Amino acid sequence: MSLSVVILAAGKGTRMKSNLPKVLHKIAHKPMVEHIINTVESLGSDAINLVYGHGGDMLKQALSNYNVNWCLQAEQLGTGHAVMQAVDNIKDTDDVLVLVGDAPLISTETLNKLVSAKQNADLALLTVDLDNPTGMGRIVRDDTNNIEAIVEHKDATDEQRKINEINTGMMVMGGADLKRWLGNLSSDNAQNEYYLTDVIEMAASEGKKISSAQPDWHREVEGVNNRVQLASLECAYQHRMAEQIMMQGATLADPHRFDVRGNLEIGNDVYIDINAVFEGEVELGSNVSIGPNCILRNCKIGDNTKIEAFSLIEDSTVAEACTIGPYARLRPGTDLAEGAKVGNFVEIKKSKIGKGAKVNHLSYIGDAEVGATANIGAGTITCNYDGVNKSKTQIGEGAFIGSNSSLVAPVEIADGATIGAGSTITKKVEANHLAIARGKQRNISSWQKPTKNK
Ligand code: UD1
Ligand code: CA
Hints:
By secondary structure, the chain is α/β, with parallel strands linked by helices. The chain contains 8 helices and 37 strands. It binds uridine-diphosphate-N-acetylglucosamine (UD1) and calcium ion (CA).
């Protein structure tokens, strides 16, 4: 049997007060609907039908990497009407999983439980008990605890409103049943809408077996209607990430000040101080230590490397036992070999820094290759850009670049060469030579200090 998914995302999201369709608002820098699509993909579903109403162009652009069937619901006449827009893509033999687009934390495990609950039944509902169920559809059960119906809050009697078990909006049923039931929906209710939830009573009256499953964590089924709820789910998401990372062997100085916006993989005994942000794909080796207020984006950090406070590392690879920062910036294309040191106020772009080489203070190294154990003095600049083209700087193994030197690219400084401090180097320096390219010092003994004009 194949699994066809319908994601309901046509609601306007008025309370977001936004030009963006609600489901494109982000949790951990990723649109809510994309979280759901990724979860659905991990279930191994065969088709994803996305019912949309507003901002179709924005949605299609944001989700252009995904293979979804776009189902326009031009007018929002209710959740049942929304599912009707997808029926042309659904086969009678499919199992149909209906999801809501604005509950981004739903997990693969919970959806697997729901899909399994359908295996011994005709319809399975994901329900949850809430202390305050106001506004939600209530699950009505008979004396033997069988589900009889879902009653919307606005249509419920006072007695029914006391029920704490609510409909999350997520359910599974067979394609042929769904189509038959949808055909019988009416909008004769308090909201004049076609309620998807009315199919439950139809199923019960046909004597169909209805089962239910519950999420592992109640926040998985929480929807977002405004930005306060969005922030609250962002917090919940980050807290779950923090717990995962701690279970995998990292010590976090404070799990409440830790953000992952992508995937973070770690070795054992990683230490992460407060306010670290991890974006994209980040891999940290064993024993890596990250100081406070660092941002790591798409990078791989080798074992035993120490990153000090306020460093930013982006699209870079760092080998084992390096030290970086505080206040270092590794821009895209930086590659540090084992034991390299990059100190404070150093910017490195598209450069290889060799084994044990040091760039310790206030430097800009761009489009360069720095040999093993080379020492780049404070304030060294590779002048890699002439205003039109970028050029390369080669610095050999064991070279020593005196402080405040400008290396005008393209230029090569061969192995073991020394550059006198304050030099502006424009020509190749041969191996083991000393190059000095600065104004000669003159000491003037007859110098008279200026005096104040009267
Ligand atoms: C719905 C359920 C309710 C459940 C609650 C959980 C119905 C009738 N009620 O109520 O039992 O407790 O969700 O949050 O199903 N949507 C469309 N097109 C529409 C209407 C809605 O795509 O015409 C989408 C929305 O974008 C949203 C989802 O369906 O993603 C739920 O819609 P919403 O208006 O929030 O439903 P509720 O009335 O809250
Ligand atoms: Ca709702």
